[in-house]
Amino acid sequence: MVVCVCNAIREEQVRDAARNGARSACQAYRALGRQAKCGQCTPFAREIIAREHSAA
C-alpha cells in the first residue's frame, strides 16, 4: 500500500525504516532520502512505526 503519494513511499519501506531504528515519520522519510511534503501521510506513517515497534 502507498503511504505517501507525494514521495511514492510504500508501507513496507516505512516498516523497514522502523525496523532499522526510525522512531518518527520524519526519521523514516530521511532514512529513505525523502521528506514529507503535504503532511497528510504522517499520521499513517506514525501508526505503522508505532505498530512495528510494539511488535518488536
From TrEMBL:
GO MF annotation terms: 2 iron, 2 sulfur cluster binding; metal ion binding
Keywords of the record: 2Fe-2S, Electron transport, Iron, Iron-sulfur, Metal-binding, Transport
Residue span(s) of domain BFD-like [2Fe-2S]-binding: 2-51
Entry-linked InterPro entries: BFD-associated_ferredoxin, BFD-like_2Fe2S-bd_dom, BFD-like_2Fe2S-bd_dom_sf
Ligase keyword on record: no
Similarity remark: Belongs to the Bfd family.
Name assigned to this protein: Bacterioferritin-associated ferredoxin
Organism of origin: Stakelama sediminis
